[in-house]
Amino acid sequence: MDSMSLLDTEHWRISYRRDARHPGSLIVASRSNARDLADLAPSALAALGQVLALGERLLRQEYQPHKVVFYKLGFSSGFSVHFHVVAVTRELLQEIVEHPDYPDEPDGNDVILFVSREYAERALTPAEQLEQMRQVERLRQRLTSLN
Question: Among 10, 38, 69, 134, which has the highest number of CB atoms less than 10 A from its own CB?
């Protein structure tokens, strides 16, 4: 496991998103080189639901979010098939409402775009890296109570 990894299963890895500033931004990635769901082995597909559910339970216990959103994009080259799993707190929703470029009643698409644009997609500062490592350690500890 690398420094961002939280859990490895036979087919999947749950890790903290490397460029995430938003607490509770996970990646569930295939451990095979498959680019699409259709390329996965039946056993990997069968295990996917359990791994996604574990990611959701982890985020719910650690952050008590209003919602947990899942999304698969697949536009970036060089990555295996993966899902973003994000804790959506009421505070995050309020932050989106207050942002001039987003609607007063944000939906899942707004959350995905906001988290990506405002909380990711750029290098972390040393202080942000330290906080991210604290989040990773907290989530690893929380996982021990879920397994």
Answer: 69
